[in-house]
């Protein structure tokens, strides 16, 4: 039996934990991990590690903040940031922390609202019930509370998650990129590893450090081989309960084209960054994201092409399908979701390219830049805010408006040359993917080349200015209609077509897929009982496991690296070049201090920044990656070689004290308060 | 019944042609098409279209020549080239034409030589017999003759192809890139289409235009809808006879990673070319090649993920496999090639990344640039030339040495900044794909970054100079060993490892795959008889068909476009910008002149530049592309929508006379001689 599973806190596998490790969590222990763990709304995990709002997460989860607070010649992303005094802690424009308050089962309500409905009807009904539940949960104070209806077990269960929001989040410390991401893309998802992938934030309330009595005490030593470990965080998504027909479509229809698109963008950004230090900085955040995604896609594609995996998956599907059709009662109860699923996937193949280009914004650089996203958000928000809450697109429901406004008001730097380059390329992709004879392409480009249009849009827009965005936000539909901003006009122009393809995709693909998955999931429950954990949904999960290496091609990989190994691996050339701080500190550091370690905890993207804790609820490490075998974890957990990779708390303390000379932070970590 | 098939001239489907079209080719007709059609050794087709060595092919088949003869501010690739007088026809450094003289069946000899051998033994034996057959065929005059042993029917048959070589090939005329490739990448593989993708070469012998009495007379009108058409050319390769297990490995193990690699390079080159006109020119040839490849890969991946295709393929395999095992005699005769094939594919998955990076040279920019290729060729040639012919790597057998020498001596421009950029990127890929801890990667990079090493290699090498290459070629092993050129040293350094992975790949993958395919192909013959055509092998094939449109989403696509449509499609912005010559000539041109047309001839890459001829053996068009549905033609021919795309001879004549004012060329075309 493997240490498999990403468990919700209200359904922990207490029996397995007791049997395998002789450990049963107390209610206090569970309460602690729930409140000390945080979700970074943009897609990571963090945890409180002092009573005064100190948050530990990854350097790579602080990328946006580090880029955004760098002004002029400053480059905090590369050079790190140290707040020597508390007053030096700058606000991160875009970071929001969510602290889970409660989980309420709302399966009955959701099922009642959607019963018997399909397609567009179902989308509408689900949107309405979600909105109703979320509004009542937020209870008029969306600045403080955030509520999300979460689909668990692919629709086997629905739950209402209520979070406390922290929107005033400031930066305390981040090391240099070259030590945080030592080894760069070559070492990413590999082990042995030597990264200090850490950043510390602080949550503020009313301009003062937040009071956070529930936090993980910081273990100065880190764990030992064989120790039981827990990872508490927000794994983003997994597809382990998904039938093969859906995974096959995911591979062929979605993943492969996206892999090509991102690879192309990677090459573009690589070359863009060679033009100089400023260009390298402009492209840095997108490059990091894309290189990481491509490595993940590679891992997924490998698993999804693995004959053994595919055969096993097909067998499981066939046996469930057989079971569902074995009696007249079951046939009546379940119908034939398998055929529905297949039809939905075929429809997905027809719609996906258009959906990606228009609604996902790949054709307008909504993914690689800022400007078009502002335009679209303003245009959509103006239209949506005039509708009743339950009829809005989910992003614009009252519960989400504070986050939208926050993004629009944040003073994120916009790089015009970068935006123009990426927009030109995106418009080329729009034309390439939809075809030069497509009416929307004709309408957008007219007689202009992508390059000409991009130049005109970026030089003409005012949307880089937060004040202009604020005006348009406050002015609502009238201001949008009156605007002469070329990007606002473009967003308005494509909006009907973009909404149409979204609606078609949701009605013909998402809704029937969800319904079929739900039916299949329910049948699996009826047959097997609810003995397992739900697929990951970027909500709080606990995984248990131990510190343990693995075997690679017959050779054992030990679970720890140390500071001595870091200095041995350094070459002086990127990405194996140490920052000056580490070069200078070498003599002061204990070479035997553990640096990174691996555990067999079952984690996935979104767990980045999660604390690794021990039986006492003390932080002993900081998750920042998985090994290469962990990538298949999206689809199946293999305990023999799937490993989580963490920074040891020992190296965190050693480096904060001796490399960065920050007694203030070191003391707060060891004492648990300011 | 569809107009399927790429037939060898010694096994034409005379019955089908007679039944479907009432046409039976005479021996004279066959003799004409064999000698008028040419192979461009680099990978295209051409044809003689006058008695004085005038050759018609595509502009995109003349890309290398146009780049290579452009010097200083000249850019013949973009601006076209016109030789007003015969003395103005410049030599294309790298073009070699092959004219097929004879096909000799050598199945018995090859089978006898390889009987009972497997793995490395088999590779060696086949190399030895091929060398022996080719040498005896060339008979000491490799400057005039070229002989290749060709594997047909996946090993069901072997044939010795003897060609007359033309190495003095000069450029007569090429139009501007913007009309040759009007619509650029967006229109590539699409229709309606408006391209003048033509170039004319002339073959010279002893510094005089070659005498070529067998040529295609040039039809001034082009064909009509429904006319029977033939395409005679050199389709590069198809995989129609290949079992599914091999195609699945092709998709997952080879195609998908390569698709990512080329996509990345595409983005890099896109951005590289934006730096200025000079950089755009430097990147142009590679960009063209890569964009085209990516579109092809997209088509392949679509077919290889098409459920109907996969199911049909699996069924065909299963039925043949069953037939092969149905009697004890058959089991003894055929053994179990299916399992062998599967093992070979598994081994391929283990070796392919290393093989691509080292031996295919992706890790050293052997694909995107010139310099490392020179180094490797010189290093290999020195070692190989000292061995007996039959023991050499095939590229270095005596029969191939003239082509190798030709490449080394050609004065192809080398762009140092381009080479350095691409080499830096390639070395990064080397490290990424093999891993930072790989011993070869360590050995190559040492403590340097890819960028540092690339800078050092490109600034230090002398190999851009043909005279230096000539010295090293002439000096043989001694000169190579004594050389201090850093690229020669790198090529020497990785050669043992590179040869080793090649040998492993050939022994464990290529040879057993070939043997298994051969056994399966033989079984298919035993069951079905030799009623079909062999998979394409870049050798001369005839396809028959007709001028006909198709239905796209229920709407008919007519088979012709005309000059009027070209002017309507032009926008003034790249890639829909007409060159000045066409803008200025508009008033003079007949708008109803047919421009491009489609036929259902079964063609594939390598057929580029093939003449479309009529029943009389007159040229009526010039193949330059297929429609988007033709891309699946690698694996299966679908007569309902697979279409070849050709330039009409009518527009060729109209434009040569009225746009380019070249009566000399127009007269030669209509009169058939200078």
TrEMBL record, chains A, B:
Pfam families (alphabetical): Peptidase_S46
Stored InterPro entries: Pep_S46 (IPR019500), Peptidase_S1_PA (IPR009003), Peptidase_S1_PA_chymotrypsin (IPR043504)
EC number: 3.4.14.-
Alphabetically ordered keywords of this record: Aminopeptidase, Hydrolase, Protease, Serine protease, Signal
Function per UniProt: Catalyzes the removal of dipeptides from the N-terminus of oligopeptides.
Family indicated by similarity: Belongs to the peptidase S46 family.
Protein name: Dipeptidyl-peptidase
Protein species of origin: Dyella nitratireducens
Taxonomic lineage: Bacteria, Pseudomonadati, Pseudomonadota, Gammaproteobacteria, Lysobacterales
